[in-house]
Amino acid sequence: MIDEQGPARPRAVTRRQAVGALGLAASAAAAAGAATTAAAQPTRGPASLLYPHESRTRATRDLSGLWSFQLDPKNEGEAGRWFERGLPAPRKIPVPCSWNDLFDDALNYFGTAWYETEFHLDPAWRGRRVAVRFGSAVYHARVWLNGVYLGEHLGGHLPFAFDVTGLAHDGAPNRLVVAVENELRVDRVPSSPDPKAGHFAFLEEPNTAYDFFPYCGLHRPVLLCAAPDTHLQDVTVTTGLSGNRGEVAVEFQVSGAWSGPATLTLTGGPKPVTVTAAVKAGAGVARMVVPDVRAWSPDDPFLYRLTVRLGPEGAPVDEYTLKIGVRTIAVRGSEILLNGKPVFLKGFGKHEDGAIRGKALDLPMLVRDFELLKWLGANSFRTSHYPYAEEALMLADEYGLMVIAETPGVSLIFSDPPEVIEARYKQLEMALGELIRRDRNHPCVILWSLANEPIAKPFHTADPEPPGAVETGRKFFANLFARARSLDRTRPVALVSVQGGPAEWVGQGDVICQNSYNGWYAVSGRLGDAAVALEQEVTALRARHGDKPVIYTEFGADAVAGMHSQPPAMWTEDYQADIIETYWQVLRKHPYVVGTHPWAFADFRTGQSTMRVGALNQKGVFTRDRRPKLAAHRLRSLWRST
Q1: What is the pLDDT of residues 174-198, one digit of tens each?
Q2: Which H or E run includes 423?
C-alpha cells in the first residue's frame, strides 16, 4: 500500500527483462506466457540505456523501415508460436509509425499486434556486446529474438533495451519479433474509465479518461547497438556556475569489474578541459572547471562536447561523447532563475501527433515545430502529457527551448479502488525513474511535471467527492515528489492542476502549474466575465500557495480554421485569439506569474465525440498541418514585443 514511509517497491527483475522495465508486472496471462517462452533464456548482463551515440568504440544500426505486421484480435499468436514460426498472414508496416491511421481495420484496435523483421550482424562487431534498443512501444511490449524470449516492457514513451550478445547469430539472418498491445485499462497510466463503475468518458470512441487519441505501436526507432565488452553503462552530468567559471560534475558507471584510468575531455570552448578519474568498483567521479564559460540559455544555447574515455587515447577500451550545456536552474521566492536571472516562459503544451504517422517520431515535423516556436518568439514548451522522443530533447538543447518534462500521469482519478490506485502508483513511479534517468543530462529540461490534471473524482459526475480521496492523493503525490527529488536534486518539481486542484496536492510542488479555461469550459462565450474570473483565480492561487511562482500551463479555446465572426463568437479564430490575449493581459499584471503556455501549439487527434469536431482538439494556434490561425499572429505580436 502507499504510505508516507516511502513508495511501494515493485517486485525484483530477472535478467530476461528489459532494462527500464524494472519489474513492473504485466497481466497475469502475459506473465504466464512469458515464463513459458523464456524457460531456456541464457544468462546475460543488462543493456545500457545511454542514448547510442557512435564513437571510435561504438556503432549503431537503425532497424527502422518496413516490417511485417499482423493483428492478433484472438490473442492466438503466442500459443501458435508466431515468434518462432513466423506471422501467418502478414502485411507491411513502417517502423516507426502508429498502426491506427494506416489500416481501416485497425483504427480503433488496441489489442495485440505482432511485428517481425530480420537483420544481419556486421562482421566488424565480433567480440562486442550487442543490444537491441526500442525508443518506445505503446503500450506493453514482449520481444523475441530467433525464437528466444528476451523480456517485456510496460508503459510507452520511454526506451528499453536487451543485451543479445551470443543470441544474435553471426553470419546468418536474425529474426526479431515484437508483440505490442495497448489495452485501454483502468489500472494503467494513463488510464481508461471503467464503464461498469459509471465513470465519465471524455471521449465516446475510443473510451479514455484523457483528451488525445491512444495511438498504438512502435513509435520511435529500433536500434541495434554494439559496444565493447567493457563499456560505459551510465553517465550523469550536473553543472554549476561561479562567476565566469563553469563547474561540471560527472558520475559514470562501467560494466563488469574493470578498473583503471578514465579521461574526461570537454571541448567547444577556447581550450579543451581535460581531467582524469579513477574507476573503482565499476564507478568513477570527476569534476571539471570551465574558465570563461558560455552558459546555456535561450539567447545562447551553447553546447560543449563531453567525452568520457576508458583507457589510453591510442587504444581506448570505450569512449562515449554527449553534448552538454552548462547552466543552473532554481526557484527563489516567486521567481524561476536560469543562471541566476529570472525567466518568463512563453510557449505551449503540445503533442507528438500527425496525420498518418500518429505519434511516431517525425524529424521534419519536429524541426518545423521548433522553427515555428522561434518565429512566434516562444522560449519553452511542455511535453504534454508523456515523455517525448529523445531526439526532441536533443533538438531543444540546440534551439535553446526550455522544457517542462512530464510523466504519462494524465487524468489520474482518486475515487477508484485502492488496488487500482496502487497499481497506477507503481507504474508511475517506474515511469518517473525512467524519465529522469533518460533526460537528466539535457540542459533544456528545467522542470519535472509529475502529472497533468489529477482529480479527486471523474469530470462531469454528479456524485459527491468520495471521503478520503483528497488525502489518498496527498499521500500518493507526497511519495512521488520525494522520489523525484531523490533522483534529481538540481531541478524543481511540480504537478499540473486544473482550475486550482486540491491545494494539498498542488502545494507540494516548487512551482504552481495551473490549467484554466475561463471563457471556454467556464463562463463560456463571455470574454469580460472570463477576465474577471481569471483575476479572482490568480489572486486566490497567491493566497493559497504563498510566494511560489505560478505558470499557467493551459488556457485557450477551440477554433475551426477559417471560421470568423464579428463580434467574436466561440469556435471562431477571432474568439480564440481574444481569449488568449485576455489571459496574457491579466496574467502579466501579476509578477509572481512566471510563464504562460496557451493550449495548444497545434490541433491534434482525439477520439470521436460530440465535443470534438472532426475528432480533433482544435485549440491549436496552428492547424494539424501547421498553418497559422489568427491566434498565432496575435501571440507573435505579444511575445516578440516583450
Answers
A1: 999 999 999 999 999 998 876 555 4
A2: helix 418-439
| Residue closest to 616 by CA, chosen among 372, 355, 348 | 355
Q: What domains appear along the chain, each with residue ranges and CATH number? A: 28-227 (2.60.120.260), 232-316 (2.60.40.10), 342-639 (3.20.20.80)
Number of H helices, E strands in the chain: 10, 32
The cell numbers describing 513, all together, are 502549474
Q: How far apart are CA 329 and CA 331, in angstroms?
A: 7
Known catalytic membership, residue 581: no
Q: How confident is the model over 293-351, as pLDDT tens digits?
A: 999 999 999 999 999 999 999 999 999 999 999 999 999 999 999 999 999 999 999 99
Closest to 236 measured CA to CA, from 338, 324, 327: 324
Which one-letter DSSP state was computed for residue 239?
Answer: E
Given 116, 352, 390, 453, the catalytic residue: 453
Rounded CA separation 430/509 (Å):
19
Instruction: Pick the catalytic residue from 313, 554, 573, 581.
Output: 554
Q: What is the DSSP letter of 197?
A: G
Please give the grid coordinates belonging to residue 407.
510523466
As a three-state string, the secondary structure of 56-104 is: CCCEEEECCEEEEEEECCCCCCCCCCHHHHCCCCCEEEEECCCCCCCCH
Distance of CA 627 to the CA centre of its chain: 26
DSSP track, 29-41:
HHHHHHHHHTTTP
The pLDDT of 57-68, averaged and rounded, is: 97
What is the SS3 assignment for 116?
strand
**With contact defined as beta carbons under 8 Å apart, do 52 and 148 qualify?**
no
554 is a catalytic site residue: yes
Full-model pTM:
0.92
